[in-house]
Each structure stands twice: as structure tokens, then as C-alpha cells.
Amino acid sequence: MAGKLMNLSNEYEEEEPSQPLNPNNMLNNDWCRGVIRPPESVRSQLKCFHLNTTFIPFLRLTRIKVEEMYKRPHIVVIHEFLSEFEIQILKAWATPGLERTQVVNDTTGAYIPSKDRLAFGNWIKDEQHSAMATISRRISAITGLDLSTAEDANIIRYGVGGYYGHHYDTDVYVVDNPVIKPKRIATWINYLSDVEAGGATVFPYINVAVWPEKGAGLFWYNMLTSGLIDVNTIHGGCPVLVGTKWIVTKWIRPTGQEFRKLCENNLLSYNVLGINS
Ligand SMILES: O=C(O)CCC(=O)C(=O)O
Ligand SMILES: [Fe+2]
Questions:
Q1: Which of 247, 250, 253 to mutate to test the pocket of ligand 1 (most atoms within 8 A of CB)?
Q2: Which domain holds residue 24?
Q3: Residue 9 domain-assigned?
Q4: Which of 81, 236, 220 minimizes the C-alpha distance to 158?
Q5: pLDDT digit string (tens) for 18-55?
Q6: Under 8 Å between Cβ of 55 and 141
Q7: Does the residue 23 lie in any domain?
């Protein structure tokens, strides 16, 4: 068994996950163990590239290093997105006010503590620190999205055993359930730390695992161009086994994107970083 756990070779890449998709069953599941990857046919299409910043004055003199993790939905990692200074500022800001994180209750819509999310968090507004305002401005420049309507950034610290069960970031329509959860067209996660073991952000329906990398950004669209939820974006944060995981999440709202991400006739067309496909 130990041999199997350690073996990350191709032998396992097409294997079907053996664990049921249960938010409380993040520990030791196949996605978190890193033994499942998208098939070769998907991986061979993925690219690394420098974002074309020619027409983005704010980023003209920077190199934005993009690595695709999946195409549809478009999941990308932006390497070396944050500076060491920004990372230290955000951690120092959050630390004195860290509190147990909560989730939106499906029936009442209220924020409640939950066994699906074990972490400590704090919030920061762009106006509260110029470092955060600059980060939001960079995210906006890279994604082309309006961040003035986005939620405040959520700074999260996961200790050993901390995790976030599988969930959607945007609301899921449930018949007979009057509660409308917030709509989030896209999510941007900043990793403020590496994690020695565990702590991957996983998308179990498409077998994608993103391992935290200090300073990197992770971005994906939760919605198709039609505004429908992309069901393949269900994701979670794996338990931290060794070390501490720090992230800063920006949940981006559809409001304000009307002239930036145009609706398309095709109900199932995908949003992508840059132009749509
Ligand atoms: O901790 C992670 O890797 C995922 C966090 C997440 O899903 C969120 O903040 O919405
Ligand atoms: Fe999430």
C-alpha cells in the first residue's frame, strides 16, 4: 500500500476516483493524495505562456507567467504573482483578527461554522491597505474583469488538519430552495505559502489538483458565458498534513462584467482568460 501511495507514475492517471464525493471525506481521498490526473489527451493540450500585456498599460513592463491546468473550465496558475512584501503584509494584517471560517447555510442563507470548512480567516478591503488595492488592480488587469463589485478578500490560514470540503463558489439552483447564494462568475486564489504536505486545491470532477505555491495565483471561471454554473468547477481544499497553508481568495461577481465578458448565444460556451472560446 505504501508503494501505491508513493507511486505517482502514469499507471494511476486514468484511474477512476475510488472515494465518493463527500465534503467530509477530504482526508486521504484520491485527489488529495495526488494519484489522479486528467488523461493525457487533456494534458497534452495545456500550455505555459506569457500573457500578452501589450495592450494593458498597467502590466506593460511585467511578465505574467501563465500555466494552464485545464481548458474547459479554464483553470490557470499565474506564477510569481505576489511579491514577498505583499505576502508579509497580508499575513501580518490578518493574524490578530483570525476567526473560525464559516459557510453559507443552504436553507437559511446565513453564515454558520461548519465541519465542511476547518480554517481561520479574516477579511480585508482594498481601502484598508494599499498592498491589497494593488493586488486587486493587478487581478483586474490580468483577467479583464471589474473587481470593484468583487467581495472583500478573504485571508485564510489552514493549520495541520485544516481543509475546505468540496463546494461550488457560485450559487447552485435547487428546486424548492428559496435561498439564493451569492453569484460568483470567477474565483482568484492567492497562495501565500508553500505547504510541506497536503493542502492541494482539487477539482474532483475533472481530476485536477493544484499544489500551493508561495506567491502564485489560481484563477478559474465558475460560470459559462451564458451565466449558467459550470458544474465541473466543484472544488475543495485538501487537508494540510505538514505545515501551514495561507491563501487569499477574491470571489468575483458577475455584476460589472456586462461589457467585459459578453453573453453569447451558445448556452454552453466557456469563459477563458483573455478571449472566450
Ligand atoms: O483552500 C483551497 O485550496 C480552496 C479555497 C476555496 O475553495 C475558496 O476559498 O473558495
Ligand atoms: Fe471555493
A1: 247
A2: 19-252
A3: no
A4: 236
A5: 555 665 566 657 889 888 899 999 999 999 999 988 88
A6: no
A7: yes
Q: Is 201 in the pocket of ligand 1 (CB under 6 A)?
A: yes
Ligand 1 atom closest to 158 (CA): 1
Distances, alpha carbon 37 to alpha carbons 28, 93, 196, 202, in Å:
16, 36, 20, 10
Cα distance between residue 250 and residue 21, in whole Å = 25
Measured distance CA(222)–CA(229) in Å, rounded: 6
Atom of ligand 1 nearest to the CA of 119: 1
To test ligand 1's pocket by mutation, which of 156, 183, 192, 244 has the most ligand atoms within 8 angstroms of CB? 156
Domain count of the chain?
1
Give residues whose Cβ lies within 5 Å of ion ligand 2: 169
Which ligand is nearest the CA of 163, by number?
1
**What is the structure's pLDDT at 29?**
78
CATH number at residue 74: 2.60.120.620
Q: Which amino acid is at 6?
A: M
